[in-house]
Amino acid sequence: MKPVLEILIPTFNRVESAQAAIESVLDCNDHRLTVRCNSNGYEPNLEKFRNFDSRVKYDCFESNRGPQANSIKLFNETNTKFCMLLSDEDRVNNENYEKILNFLENTDKNTQVIACSIFDQIKNDYYWKPSPRISESNIHNYVALSPLSTYMSGLIYRVDSLKCIDIANLTNTSIGNSYGHLDITLHMLRNGNLKYFNERFVEKGADLEFGGDGHSHKLKNSPKNPTDDKNIDLNPSVYGPKARARQFYYRENLLNKLKSEISPVSFLIGKLNYVDFFYRSIMKSNQLVFLPKNTALKNEAMAAYIDSINKNENSGSKTASFFKFLIISPGFIANPLFFVVSNINKLIRMAYMMKLVLFQKNYKD
Prior knowledge:
Number of helices: 13
CATH superfamily of the largest domain: Spore Coat Polysaccharide Biosynthesis Protein SpsA, Chain A
Number of strands: 10
Helix content: 40-55%
Number of domains: 2
CATH topology of the largest domain: Spore Coat Polysaccharide Biosynthesis Protein SpsA, Chain A
Strand content: 15-25%
Oligomer: single chain
C-alpha cells in the first residue's frame, strides 16, 4: 500500500538543519508518512540517510543546479498519494501527524491541494493560518483572494494530479520564477479545489542566514555587511528590485494565459494583487538587499521590463503596461496613483470575500 504523505525537502549547504528536518519526519512513527531529501551538492553528513530506513530516501547533485532543479527532481521521484514541500529550516510536528494523515485519507478526490497552517517555533505563535471564514477555494477564489502565504513549506499536492501538469515549465530556471510552488497550485486548481488544514503540523524554524535560495549569494561564515545593520542582506537575484519586477511580469504573464478559465472579476483582482505585492516589494527592496552605490530602483525595474520582453515573459497586457508606467514615473505621480489603485483593490476584495462568505453560509444552511 502506498504511503499517504511524503515530505519533500530540497536543501543546499545546511547540513545540520536538513538532518533535523528529516529526523522530525522519522520521529513521527507511522508508515503512512515518509520523507525524501535532495541536496544541491555532496554533503558527507547526509549520506547516512541513503540506506538509513525504508521511510527515507536521500540523493544529491554533484554541484549546485539551483532550487528549481532540486524541486523538479523531488516532484518527479515522489510516488505516494500526497506530497508536501518542507524547507530545510522547518520541521513537522511529531504529535499532530496522525490528524493530517487521517485528514488526507478522508479527503474527497476533487481536492487537489491542501494548505497547512504554519506555526512559528521561535515566536510560539502562528506564522500563517488560513482564514476561518473559508474552508475551501476553487481557482476563481484562489486568484481573487490570494489566500496563501508565499512561504514554501506546507503545501500538500495530490501526486497523481501533480504528475499531469508541466512541472518543469512551472519551475523553470528564471530570475522571474521564484514562486513555482504557488504557480503549481494555480494550475492544479484548474481541475479541483484547495482545502485548508488549520491544526498544527508544519513548524517554522529559525531563519538561517546562510544557504538556501535566499542566502546562496554568500558563504556560510560570511561577516554581516557593516554599512547597514538593518539590511537583511538577502539574495539580490530573488529580492532585488530587478528580480522583483521580473517576478511580476513572469507571474502576470502566467495568469494571463489562463484568462479564459477564470471569472472576469477574479481575473481583475488577481492582476491588481500582483501590482500591489510587487510594487511594494520593489520599493522596499533596498532594505532587504545590498545594492551597488547610486543604484536607482526604477532603473533596475525598467531593465527588468526589457529583459521580460526578451525572455518572452511579458504578456503585453494593459496591466503590464500600467505596472511599467508606475515604475518609471516619478514618486510624486507613482505613489499617489498606487495608493488609489491599492485601496480600490482592497475594497473589491472585501466585497468579494463578503459575497463568498455569505454564499458558503447559505450553502451550509
